[in-house]
Specification:
The chain is α+β, with helices and mostly antiparallel strands. It has six helices and four strands, in the order H-E-E-H-H-H-H-E-E-H.
Length: 174
């Protein structure tokens, strides 16, 4: 199970639909009906506390479960399923709110590939065990990635990087 490792893809779905890192979502108790004969689901945050109105950036950095579920309610489970499909995280995303918190099983390879695609601007990444082979003179004789790298040394605008650094550097994310 990816657990909090899935949360960035929920936030990506929000950003693709007009939310920004400074958009506010309420981090407060929530109850969700799961269907006939099923108990009411009350997702919790690690530590059991709530932060009230919170920016998406902080929600992702602090891995706020309840906020992520509320954000999913705003977007729709089908939107999260579409992002999950695009990044190859699951064969099929089961439409349950607990799955936006990473409750559904997947593989490390799929998550590593999805994160690689995220870091690569959403472009497809084929996982490989051997990236490159150089001969004794340093000449590359095999390179797994055949794509041209037109801007490998350029700095990007930093927005994605700041979000990612905040998530992994100051929060409790994966």
């Amino acid at each position: 199970q990816p657990g909090s490792g899935f949360l960035p893809f929920v936030y990506l779905a929000a950003m693709e639909r007009g939310f920004t890192p400074s958009s506010i979502v309420v981090d407060a108790p929530i109850e969700i009906e799961q269907g006939p004969g099923m108990p009411i689901w009350k997702p919790k945050n690690y530590g059991g506390n709530f932060m009230g109105p919170t920016t998406l950036r902080v929600g992702l950095e602090k891995s706020r479960n309840v906020m992520t579920v509320r954000l999913t309610q705003m977007l729709g489970l089908d939107v999260i399923a579409h992002v999950s499909d695009r990044f190859g995280i699951y064969d099929e995303f089961p439409p349950n709110y607990s799955n936006v918190l990473g409750a559904q099983e997947t593989t490390v390879m799929r998550m590593a590939t999805a994160y690689s695609m995220l870091a690569n601007g959403g472009l497809n990444v084929e996982p490989t065990m051997i990236k490159r082979i150089d001969d004794a003179q340093g000449k590359t004789i095999y390179r797994a990635d055949k794509r041209a790298c037109t801007h490998c040394n350029d700095d990007n605008d930093g927005v994605k990087e700041r979000l990612q650094n905040g998530y992994t550097g100051s929060g409790n994310g994966s």
